Amino acid sequence: MAMLETPRERPGYRLLSAATALPIAYVGTLLLLLCAYMFRPALLSPMLLMLIIRQAAPLGVAVIGQSLCIRILSIDLSFGGVAMGVSYILTSGYVPGNQAVLIGGSLLFGAAVGLANAFFIVRLRASSVIVTLAMGLLLTGIVIAFSQFRAPGDAPALLKYIGQTRIWNVPLAPLVWFALLIPIGWYLKRSVLGQYIDAIGANPRAAHATGIPYASVVVLVHVASSLFAVVSAFLLVGFVGMGSLDIGRDLALNSLAAVILGGVTFGSGRGGILGPAVAAFMLTFLFNLLTSFGLGEPSKLMLQGAIIAMAAIAYSARTRN
Amino acid sequence: MIGGSASRSSRSGIGIITVALPLSMFVLLSFAAPSFFTGQNIGNISNQIAALLITSLGQLIVAISGGVDLSVGSTLSLTSAIIVSFDPSIVIPLALFAGCCIGVVNGVGVAVFGVHPLVMTLATATFVQGLTFLVLPTPGGVVPPAIERLAESPISGLPGSLLWCAAAILFFWLLLSRSSFGLRLYAIGANPRNAALNGVKVVAPIITCYVLCSLSAVAAGVFLTARVSTGDPTVGASFGLDSVTVIALGGVQLSGGIGSVPGVILGAITLGLATNGMNLLGVSPFLRMAATGLLLLGAISLQRRKTIGV
């Protein structure tokens, strides 16, 4: 990367390019906070900010998985189906066993979905968008068909505890998020796997040619991504305290938006783990701000679409220059 | 791959499975479901397939150009919402205008800015779905009689759906097989760089593809709304993935350059028969959704690509 930039190594230019290379999420979050400060200062009280961070935690966890997928030029849109499946396993009462078994079973289920996604993407070379969308459709259909005519039951006590408890006024859910985020960010920076992921993202063909275990990395990332979706669903089920068929419905799209806003793009090999995390907070904050302005679901959807499109356009325009 | 016939068949993408699947489904259904061959059911099938076929033909030309359009479902829903929400005299021009705008945004995002088509059209799909809810929050409303008549046939005994299908098939067949635009499109889809080096303009045709695709979704929306005589802001929700399933079943390569109108007709019949068959056999609609997912996974597994990923 540095070699390409040698003709333009003036300090001013470097400063400028460093500033424009920052993820949109940083600037966006600042602007939103400023906007809230001017029009809705109540949102900035520590109490509410803490609640918003707690609300952002499930998205934040899912975003880790999505950002890994997008870094290796793949994508995972099956989050909604995974979340519904997990909600069904945990709360339907059909699955026998205590909560440890239920939680373990959900993780196994997630790993199985990830493996299936990876099988289609790596072995059969199918487009990951279509594969994961179809997988989401498949899981959603099965879960709804199975859970018809039956009210969902209570969530396992452990997940309710995580979702609803606070220690010294700090809710537990964001701590789970940070406890995943920080070690994973550090691991990806330091480990061989992290270097592989960067190399594949920068140039898949070159990565393949240099003997990087391309297929294994893709499989690993997709399994990890589904597992993050499972943990994200744990948090969501814990918040609600019971099962719901609405759980995680917009997880896939929001995580995609957050990853793009967080500066991770297809094919650039760039982007860290912090940008998408900030973007997850930014989106959650934005939705709260919109609600406080009295805007409903339609405008939320429109904004979501506009954000994804504009962020994607901004990044492709930038990488072309 | 040497020889005229081989290269021809490779461009159409129609293989043995493309043809065998609808045939075997036809045979299977006529044995398994006694009510399959009744006149009413055949009418039902042609109605169900018509909107899907029209949307999928639009999806076909986008796919040949090397893209994909997931926003057709929302466009269809928006058309339905527009028809019941505005003055009857302006609804059709308004819906067509909306379709043009959606197509231009998709096309410019993909061809000018180089955004991945799936990301771009997923974004517009979300935006348009929000807009649709803004226009029509809940199902309902009355479809103007003039528009209802559009789904009826002027010739008695011939279902209106058949005429809609025939018109769409003729249009897209002429476009792809008998126009220079079609020829250029295949060249762009097969290899955009080669096409550009050979003097084929790349940007404008791709934008045109997305506009035509959105317009075909509008046409499907007009037909569907006219037939069910009420508006529904989520009527098109399944059409995005269904149309991709249809073209994949029809042998169209999602990586571009390969695909044909007959293939898409076969694909639409396959998916239509599958849906209708499960309907007749009393399968839950949600399991039908799961089955579509399975069919889609199967169909795209048949086409091995060179690359791994999106």
From TrEMBL, chain A:
It is found in: Cell membrane. It is a multi-pass membrane protein. Keywords: Cell inner membrane, Cell membrane, Membrane, Transmembrane, Transmembrane helix, Transport. InterPro entries: ABC_transp_permease. Its main location: membrane. The keyword Transmembrane applies. GO terms for molecular function: transmembrane transporter activity. The chain crosses the membrane at residues 12-39, 77-95, 101-122, 129-147, 167-188, 214-239, 251-267, 274-295, 301-317. GO terms for cellular component: plasma membrane. Part of the ABC transporter complex LsrABCD involved in autoinducer 2 (AI-2) import. Probably responsible for the translocation of the substrate across the membrane. The complex is composed of two ATP-binding proteins (LsrA), two transmembrane proteins (LsrC and LsrD) and a solute-binding protein (LsrB). PANTHER family: ABC TRANSPORTER PERMEASE PROTEIN YPHD-RELATED-RELATED (PTHR32196), AUTOINDUCER 2 IMPORT SYSTEM PERMEASE PROTEIN LSRD (PTHR32196:SF71). This is Autoinducer 2 import system permease protein LsrD. The lineage of its organism: Bacteria, Pseudomonadati, Pseudomonadota, Alphaproteobacteria, Hyphomicrobiales.
UniProtKB/TrEMBL annotation, chain B:
It is found in: Cell membrane. InterPro entries: ABC_transp_permease. The keyword Cell membrane applies. Its main location: membrane. Keywords: Cell membrane, Membrane, Transmembrane, Transmembrane helix. GO terms for molecular function: transmembrane transporter activity. It is a multi-pass membrane protein. The chain crosses the membrane at residues 12-37, 49-70, 90-113, 118-136, 156-176, 202-226, 246-274, 286-303. One of its GO terms (cellular component) is plasma membrane. It comes from the Bacteria. PANTHER family: ABC TRANSPORTER PERMEASE PROTEIN YPHD-RELATED-RELATED, INNER MEMBRANE ABC TRANSPORTER PERMEASE PROTEIN YJFF. This is ABC transporter permease. It comes from Aquibium carbonis.
